[in-house]
What we know:
heterotrimer, B: alpha/beta, Rossmann fold, six-stranded mixed β-sheet, 32% helix, globular, C: mainly alpha, ABC transporter involved in vitamin B12 uptake, BtuC, 15 helices
Amino acid sequence: MLYDILSLGVPFSVALLLAALGEMFNQRAGVFNLGCDGIMSLGAFLGFLPPYLLRTSTLFPYANLAGFALAALAGVFLGLVFAVVTVTFRAPQGIAGIGLQMLGWGLAGTIFRHFIGGVTGVEGVAAWPIPVLSRIPYLGGILFDHNPVVYLAMLAVPASWFLLYRTPWGLRVRAVGTHPRAADTMGTSVTRVRYQALMLGGAMAGLGGAYLSLCQAKMFADDLVAGRGFIAVALVYFGRWSPFGILGGALLFSLAQALQLSIQVGGIKFPYEFAVMLPYVMVILVLALARRSRMLGPAALGRPYDREMRV
Amino acid sequence: MGAPEPIRELKLEGITKRFPGILACDRISLEVRRGETLALVGENGAGKSTLMNVVAGLYQPDGGRILLNGRPVHFPTPGDAFGLGIGMVHQNFMLVPNMTVTENVALGLKPLHRGLLLDLKEVRRRVAEVSAHHELPVNPDAYVWQLSVGEQQRVELVKTLCLGARLLILDEPTSALTPQETDDLLLRLGKMTAELSIIFISHKLNEVKALSDRVTILRRGAVVYSGNTKDHTTAELAALMTGREVTLPVNPGSGATGPAVLTLAGLRVKGDRGHFALDGLDLELHQGEILGLAGVSGNGQRELADALAGLRPVESGTIRFDGEDISQADPRHIIDRGMGYIPEDRHYEGIVPSFAVKENLVLKDFATPRFSLGALLKLGEVDGNATRLRDRFDIRCSSTAAAAGSLSGGNIQKVILARELARAPKALVAVYPTRGLDMGAEEFIHGQLLALREKKAGILLISEELEEVMNLSDRIAVIYKGRILEVLPSRAATRERLGLLMAGVTHG
Amino acid sequence: MGRRFRLLYGGLVVLLATAAALAAATLVLSAIGAKPFATFVVILTGPLHDLFGVTEILVRAVPLILVALGIAISFRSGILNIGAEGQIMIGILSGTAVALAGPGLPRLFLLPLCLLAGALGGALWGGIAGVLRARLDVNEILSTVMLNYIAAQLYTFLLRGPMIDPNELMTGSGTPQSTRLPHNAWLDRIIPGTRLHSGIYLALGLAFLVWFLLWRTTLGFRLRAAGAGSKAARYAGIHVERSLVLAMLMAGGFAGLAGAVEVAGVHHRAIEAISGGYGFAGIVVALFGGLHPAGIVPAAVFFGLLLVGADMTQRSAGVPANMILVLQGVVILAIVSAKMYLRNPYAQDRAFRLLRRMGLVRDARAGEAGELSAGAEP
């Protein structure tokens, strides 16, 4: 059963991982986007849409790719909306995030309800076992026998680290999130960097959502995302704003979810609803225990920047 | 990066800058030539920082123009000003604390990076080069948060020079330095004038005399004088600065003090980072005296003030207030026992900015029988109280229902002072009470503190302005690394002696 | 610049938010092929065609008022309660449980007990988030959202299991719902033939009490100070942590009460999907009403209109009721943007000058522009 849990845990973590990495860029730049869940919902729906619509057409082979692209675009768009509200208008980020979440979730639900209505499945993305590595006993099945998006998500971790710490843009992001005025005086546009970070974060959240509908559940329903976007935000705190920490957190949570499934399948008598509750309870525990780490976060997180504000 | 063209002349013509309700700069004109050092002088609130922020591209002027080498220029962003060779070292350093010195400089050196990759080696080389050339030793790999204030300032200078500044603007460069560090800085700046022009903002006239060639004096946002420094004495400059003969009230220092009202013994209090900000502090405040606490900021003043207010836990040691041990007491209890407090950040710690002036005046007493009947507020009493205090303390506001945050800094401080003094405290802790205020407000506040002293209260005055401390205090204590190094009667305290103590140097 | 300006300025915010919502609604409706204008007409006028429609508006308004009052208290105290959805559910559970436990009790006791139990249940649920924030500095938005999901699972579990109506098990239909509440726990119907119940008196009465609490009592002063300036409040000896917990207890209590009222007044048993999004809609109503009872009541009625109207369009024009969520999201984004933008002292200055030119405000004192509006920001 441990094998089942572990091999399920890895793919389960992808949606969380992608969304949390995106949110990491947001928060490193100083903005926390609680609308992540809404972006994931819209991304999940728009990712699912092309394969569903094109299921009988000749373009079908490209449908999955189109789905991911569309989801990413939607994420960029919602990230842009959030940037306008929180960076240009300097609105309080907490409430604005909830507004964005309602918007994304509502849009996804409305369009889905109207055009499709019932619960339908799609073929989704097939697994691509890696030639030699997937045959390694035990580890092979856990790490190397998944669909390609899983591998991409794993690669996204070191890629994000590189982007944040080894590129000029990453340097600017870190500066803007810690001491935006300093960055401003040295010629970095705080507004531009925050917009860019939010759009990137949105795109990744959209991709995370699309993964859920195309690769994990292979269908779309109103409550598909089920709060994962919020869990992703909590993961950023838990992972101390570092890509590898976030990877650890994502794996931890998805293992809990895999555990929940295994318990049911294994026929162990445990109320279904309590098993479903587990990830949410974990988030609260994690937040409660991780209080010290708040001091390590970007110092300007949550505070809008105003150049003309008299210091 | 192409070197910006050398700055032969920077000219400001009729620069005007408005903030809501305030005309910060009123058609200001001045000029600086190559190799010159210009001192921009004025009281707090005169508009000096605002003006320089306009030149540095941080604020947009509402009128007037800037001419560089005869050509009108416009700085929509600070980066544009930097691009043309104007670099500014602000009063609050523009350094990202959790990045290294090199990374901070790299932030401004954009074209230096090879495409996608961050090239820190080249930046390091540049830093070392500039640092050696101007004799400003810095450690390129140190994290900024590890550095002292003096070291951080050197980093700021190096950074500005690395980014190609030809005109250096310094905003109150010596405000956080000990007297010895100040002399050191002035020396270095003097050497730099061979290559750069310098504008520095200060309200310390002895520095102005020591360093500048020319001086421009601002009062209430307008230029009142512009000329050569050597033509005037310090006293003349002071008169021009304030526009009248302002003599700040001085403590008559009768010498007779009463029993101790506040005794601190072996106080150990932790700072935000977990270290001991106060490490065995002993201090005694007597009735009817003003005890000045001098020291470079960051040596435990804030933690001491917080501990006295009950807002920071005391790890060990005692605080006896009026005979009672309050080291474990909560703020409410301490306030009720008669401790007054004028906090460092008047805008966010002293008042609730969106609450009305009258509400702020009862912020500590709204639950007392005077202003409440059981759980109900006596709004009439609150109003009456506000009107009385407004008159007594001359608080300028459109009405007592106006939001306190909309008042000027001086008036906000008056609100806080009114509230505290109206409670007739037995002891008052005043933390940087006149920071950022003009002389008129400073005079008023000093007068009130001396009046409170007459009423036999004990006052702990925490301030970075040595002059203020020396003028007002009966005794002066110097705090260094969380301990009181020495307590002197103010007659025996000289600037030099205090400066040494502030740097941790004790006699013998 | 005084109260008059502040009211007009508040009105301007609402106006801008409404305009944004209309624009977004038009876009979405066009995208799904519905006719925007026709839909708006149905939504805004449909419910007003008969008495039943009008009373339905008020039926929806009751829980909205209660939830929004609680949220207004919490926002003004500096803590953002997003957990009303979950608190409503817990309130339903506790209220139902108590009502079912005492069928023999006279009305005078059972009904108030049931409502009180609902309030206490919600308060407890909200209190968890309050304590987490006060003691452990846990972001309350995240914790309340998590608690929402947890409450939803708990609700389903109880309604399918321990609290299910025994009849359901016998007949085998298995609908997750509780037994019918005894009549002594019902809120009276005011107008026969409609669902309007006496809960509306309760809601209006509480609205007045909340106003009184926040602006006329020492407790209210304490809460508002903690929310508007927590640093200064601390220095003034106010126990900010205690205020945060208290505010969440009250907010949760109001939401829980709303749940119990819905059960006692409308459905008379606990059923699935009863909270109907009131938890989130309540946030919007609170913001729309300027976090003040005098604004919340009309805002709740207006929202009730929208909700009933949206239901009608679902049936007639096939526009999904989810549309309301989109509108809510847009309204929130628009309100917080407009509020911040207008709070900008420069914009305030300009707005003041504009309104003065239009003759809508008199010049109180020149030069004192830049006055901040007195209100806690969410």
